[in-house]
Structures are given as structure tokens and as C-alpha cells.
Description:
Blueprint: H1 24-40, H2 44-51, H3 55-63, H4 70-80, H5 90-118, H6 126-147
Helix pairs in contact: 1-3, 2-3, 2-4, 5-6
Amino acid sequence: MVKKKKNEEEQQPVDKDPEESRDEFLVAVGERIRALRSSHGWTQRTLGDRCGMAATAIYLIEKGAQNSSLTTLKKVTSALGVSMATVLPEAERGVEMSFRLSENLRNRSEELLETLRSRRKSVDGSFEEIEKKVLVYLELMKDLETQK
């Protein structure tokens, strides 16, 4: 059997443009993290130290080359002093905002309705008008939920 020299061995094919194969979502998240880090005037090492990660991990996240766990993103965003929603692309933030708005509207409407019902006996004819407004809020909340 003939031994091959190292330079004669078959080499694995290398992607010509690895950036071309990166996921757009991960790239967008990485760009936002890089912008936030830069706005603080921090290096990748500084951010890594603040969230208990290596600078190379921060580099890979910022390049969109690493699909990080939610726990890792939470560490990074906490170190940056922002919510995880801040680093999400616009479309994903819109869904989250819609969900939060819907949830807040539902909670507030239910609280108001409960308060009004508990005070029903002491409230005059304006109760019906207020109750109608609360019911409108509940309808708006249903409309928001159906848009999801």
C-alpha cells in the first residue's frame, strides 16, 4: 500500500462564500447585537466578559454564523441592558408587540369589567355606557387575536 503525502490527500470541499449560506434571521440578530455593543463602546471581549462568554462566541453570534440558544441570547441581551425583542428583526417584533398589546388589552379590560360589576349597585345609569366601552375593548382584543 502506498502512503500519500499530506499535500496529496483529498481535502474536504470548502464553501466558496460561507456568508452566502448564513440564515438571514441570524445575520439580522447578529447585526443588532453588534450595533448595541458598539453603541456602548464595548469590544467583543468586553461583552463576552459581561455575559460569561468567550469573545469568539460573540463574534460568531454577530456574524450570524452561530445559532445560539435562547438562554445565550438572554445572557447577551441582559448584558446589553435590552430585552430579547430588541434584537429581533422587525417582523418578529411586530408579532410580539401584537401579542403583548392583545394580552395587555385583555387583562385591563377584564380588570375594568370586574371592578364595574363589583360596584354595579353603587353606579348610576352611566354604568351601562362604561360597560359598553369595556365590551368594545374586549371586541378589539378578539380582533387582534384573529389577526395573528
